[in-house]
Specification:
The protein has 471 residues and is of the alpha/beta class. It is built from 15 helices and 14 strands. 37% of the residues lie in helices and 15% in strands. The radius of gyration is 28 Å and the shape is globular.
Length: 471
């Protein structure tokens, strides 16, 4: 059997060398645990071009058999194949929506997605992250706050200031908000075990404060592509795969002020990035304002801005005046559906009745665009809507149901995404837990802010952005 060397960028792969490496690991991988097989699969996946992968597995098995005197490690090969093809998420199992907003976070965080907040020292990113984490916990998402910057005392002071200002329940006491300070990470942990450990606690949101400290504690360089990728592989990807949201805090670049500090791989690995800036200085005795700007997004959020007042007992959940991409897409879809309705009415004015596919063909001649499957669904929805002007009969579709000319007011629009939650000031608490509901005593609605006219005694160290210890 001839060896081959598939190319990965500019680096050739020596198949036999990797096969021998597999053989040398035989004692570890023979009958190994699932996470060890994942580790091996990760090695293969980074070294072998995807187009060669299936053939390589078969050929490597043959080389390993020869190198081992005929003793084929069938479990190793099967484990690699399972890790690469069976265990990962499947494209055909993806949901209809790219993301779902995490309640209580003002549209900044989404379920099962990772984001990075970056800012210069003293801009308030730690306070913002704590506020979002507590708000998410109050809204029902168990949150783990991984802090290696501020410590327990300062965080507890800020936490209590937030609760007092917004009259929220104590989510520390009921376990929905878990704050841990200076926890240890171990690069020997497998990503799968790490993800299982977090998920086993029912956590829905993890906040890392900060990326620099977490990577340094692992013995890495926060500006190294390899060390950043290693952290993402260990502490972010396994959580996202389990539908856990992740928020990471980082410093701003010294020269490039619109991106996180150091390696560009941070933005390669994280789909959403936010720049946090203090627009008006705030402190325990004065009210100011912060702005959050999306600088990088795979979901169309670039240049969206959120603002929030902070200071003197005021803690606002950031709000955006810009339309979210999901809402914009839903609006555009409703417009296309209405254009299709008008085209069908015009076609039926010329000839009626028409069968389903004939009506769609006639509507296309009048400018309708879209996949046949979607147009058929829309036609069924319109026929069931008395306001649409369309009716389905045994002979085909006809005009019916009120004025059906081009001036018809249109069909009942499909339900769009929900609007922002109303302010919460302590009223209307959920009477108790239920399937998929809020924890007992938690508010149903997302909080906005304490009333500005209320006076609050300043809390020492509770709010000043200069208390952050990062640099």
């Amino acid at each position: 059997m001839d060896d081959f060397t598939p190319q990965t960028g500019s680096r050739p792969l020596d198949q036999h060398a990797l096969a021998v490496a597999l053989h040398r690991r035989a004692d570890l991988l023979d009958g190994a645990k699932a996470e060890e097989l994942h580790e091996c699969a990760s090695l293969i996946a980074t070294e072998v071009h995807p187009g060669e992968l299936a053939r390589w597995i078969a050929d490597a098995a043959e080389v390993a058999r020869r190198a081992n005197g005929g003793g084929l490690q069938e479990d190793v090969v099967a484990g690699i194949a399972r890790a690469l093809f069976d265990d990962p998420q499947r494209t055909d199992e993806g949901g209809d929506s790219a993301r779902e907003e995490l309640p209580g976070t003002g549209g900044l965080l989404h379920r099962g997605q990772s984001v990075i907040f970056f800012a210069a020292r003293g801009e308030g990113k730690s306070i913002l992250a704590l506020l979002l984490g507590v708000s998410a916990a109050v809204a029902g998402t168990p949150t783990y706050y991984f802090d290696r910057e501020n410590g327990a005392s300062l965080t507890r002071t800020r936490y209590e200031a937030i609760l007092d200002a917004l009259e929220w329940p104590d989510v520390l006491a009921d376990g929905h908000f878990i704050g841990r300070h200076y926890p240890q990470l171990d690069r020997a942990w497998s990503p799968d075990s790490y993800g299982q450990a977090i998920a086993s606690k029912g956590i829905g949101l993890v906040i890392y404060d900060s990326l620099r400290e977490a990577i340094s504690q692992l013995g890495g360089d926060p500006n190294s592509d390899a060390d950043i990728s290693r952290f993402i592989d260990l502490a972010v990807t396994p959580l996202v795969r389990r539908d856990i949201s992740v928020a990471i805090l980082d410093n701003i670049g010294h020269e490039a002020k619109n991106r996180p500090k150091g390696s560009g791989s941070k933005l390669d690995a994280i789909p959403q990035a936010y720049l946090v800036e203090t627009k008006d200085k705030f402190s325990p005795v004065e009210i100011g304002r912060i702005e959050i700007k999306c600088t990088r997004s795979r979901f169309g959020d670039e240049e969206r801005r959120w603002t929030a007042r902070m200071g003197r007992g005021i803690f606002e959940i950031p709000q955006s005046r810009d339309e979210a991409p999901a809402a914009r897409a839903a609006h555009e879809l409703r417009e296309k559906r209405e254009e299709f309705r008008r085209a069908t009415i015009a076609a039926l004015h010329e000839h009626s009745p028409l069968g389903r596919d004939d009506l769609i063909t006639a509507a296309r001649k009048k400018g309708t665009k879209g996949r046949n499957e979607r147009l058929r669904d829309w036609l069924a929805e319109l026929a069931a809507d008395p306001a649409s002007g369309l009716l389905s009969t045994d002979e085909g579709y006809i005009i019916e149901g009120g004025p059906a000319g081009m001036g018809h007011p249109g069909a009942t629009p499909p339900e769009g995404p929900p609007g922002p939650d109303p302010p919460f000031r302590g009223e209307g608490r959920d009477p108790g837990p239920g399937p998929g509901g809020h924890p007992a005593g938690h508010p149903k609605d997302v909080p906005l802010a304490a009333p500005e006219e209320e006076e609050h005694a300043p809390r020492l160290l509770g709010l000043s952005p200069d208390d952050e210890e990062d640099s």
